[in-house]
Amino acid sequence: MRIFRVDNPHTKPVAFWEFAIAEVQAKFPDVIFLSEAFTRPKMMRLLAKAGFTQGYTYFTWRNSRPEIEAYFNELTGSQMQEYFRPNLFPNTPDILPFYLQEGGRPAFMIRAVLAATLSGVYGIYSGFELCENAALPGREEYLDSEKYQFKGRDWNAPGNIKPLITRLNAIRSENPALQQTNHLTFCGSDNPSILFYLKKSSDDASMVMVIVTTDFRNIQSGWIEVPTSDLGIAGDSGYQIEDLLTGEVFSWRGSRNFVSLDPSRRVAHILRIQRP
User: Which residues contact residue 111 at a Cβ distance below 8 angstroms, ignoring those fewer than 6 apart?
Assistant: First the structure.
């Protein structure tokens, strides 16, 4: 597979990209064009319509539950779902968001889970696995940027989140619901810091529920509303769910259930109903 990450395509004429992408893909249809454009929404949409296979998004700066729900409802519930394929990056060579600077390891874990489960495609920039978050004072930019130097790393340094990223990728591989973007439903949670959503494959054969805290500092607890009708669970029936991150199995009943997330220990549940 061949991939071109095009830097700042919004600074070139859109007509050029329409021509260039069509010419390349006519001969090599498997070529992927990734638009690295953090620009105005209208231009991001125009680039997608011009033929870019994937595009950067504002996910990098959508941190709270209301921000995430509003943005992904736009991406998956409007006409954008027909032509815009979001590639989620928590960080980039140019951008170290304040959320990661302030939140440390729990923040990196939260953003990894969100990126891996909200979209069918996601990416991370080198050092994310090690929770690197040293920044230039007051700026969303790395202190020791690789744009200006070669950087050696100990990939097994203490505090790394390699096991989490490895597990997230395995879960994505095993569950078609997480291999696409648009079949996404946000579900009820009475805690504004707990995000709860359902992902389904297009044929409904694969369904995964994701519960994530957006608070990297404090324990957050609350009641969630499980979409039992979508999951084929009748009324107040009991059922078992498996946490795909840990292998734990929980017994739940009906739609209303209690969850608690401690960012120092567990930032998320990725759940699948255990069928008989």
Answer: 90, 99, 100
CB 35 within 8 A of CB 52: yes
What is the distance between the alpha carbons of residues 41 and 196, in angstroms, rounded to a whole number? 26
Say what angle helices 41-50 and 14-27 make with each other, to 10 degrees: 30
pLDDT in tens, the chain (276 residues): 688 999 999 999 999 999 999 999 999 999 999 999 999 999 999 999 999 999 999 999 999 999 999 999 999 999 999 999 999 999 999 899 999 999 999 999 999 999 999 999 999 999 999 999 999 999 999 998 888 888 889 999 999 999 999 999 999 999 999 999 999 999 999 999 999 999 999 999 999 999 999 999 999 999 999 999 999 998 889 999 999 999 999 999 999 999 999 999 999 999 999 876
Q: Are 201 and 183 in contact (CB under 8 A)?
A: yes
The structure tokens listed for 241 are 């769910």
Spell out the alpha helix ranges (H) of 78-222: 98-118, 162-174
The owner of tokens 């009708």 is 229
- Where is the domain boundary, 176, 199, 216? 176
Known active-site residue 36: yes
* 18 has catalytic annotation: no
Decide: residue 245, CB within 10 A, 0-12 exposed, 13-18 middle, 19+ buried. middle
Domain that holds residue 210: 184-273
Whether 81 and 216 map to the same domain: the answer is: no
| Catalytic site residue from 7, 102, 144, 248 | 7
Q: What's the structural domain count of the chain? A: 2
Q: Which of these is catalytic: 36, 129, 140, 215?
A: 36
